[in-house]
Specification:
single chain; 142 residues; alpha+beta; HIT family, subunit A; 5 strands; binds guanosine-5'-monophosphate
């Protein structure tokens, strides 16, 4: 059985404005922001605004809204970073690599021959993340 949603997880705090993030996009149902420990330039996270631990307890409306935003962000990061492709990944429960227990999808620009950095590796410079968020917002036309 899946554990209960913890309203004190870090992404719930971001949604409540209790801790900052480098916002890229938001609509009524979803928020997209820069990952603080990016596995590559432009690594963005997309989350629903309503509580869900991961794909195992999310409802179809949450998944639909998140994936619509994932597609929007994937197109924007490809343009913003002139990448060869875009990697989309999502983990469910600790055994599968999940470390923050609010549903999120990783959207990462990729280039042929360039490896991803480690998952939850080094913190990126805040000014760099702000610059990358601005590039993606610009590609989104915002
Ligand atoms: P997971 O392992 O759960 O799929 O991924 C969680 C992601 O959230 C990791 O890639 C990690 O770098 C990122 N992350 C962890 N804490 C924070 C935070 O406080 N702010 C942001 N923007 N990202 C975070």
């Amino acid at each position: 059985m899946t554990a209960a949603y913890d309203p004190n997880n870090i992404f719930a705090k971001i949604l409540r404005g209790e801790i900052p993030c480098h916002k890229v996009y938001e609509d009524e149902d979803t928020l997209a922001f820069m990952d603080v420990m990016p596995q590559g330039d432009g690594h963005t996270l997309v989350i629903p605004k309503t509580p869900a631990r991961n794909i195992l307890d999310a409802n179809p409306a949450q998944l639909n809204a998140v994936m619509a935003t994932v597609q929007r962000i994937a197109k924007a990061v490809k343009v913003a970073f002139q990448s060869d492709g875009v990697f989309v990944m999502q983990f469910n429960e600790a055994g599968a690599g999940q470390t923050v227990f609010h549903l999120h999808v990783h959207v990462v620009p990729r280039w042929e021959g360039i490896a991803l950095k480690p998952h939850t590796g080094a913190m990126a410079d805040g000014a760099l993340l702000a610059d990358h968020a601005a590039k993606i917002r610009s590609a989104l036309g915002q």
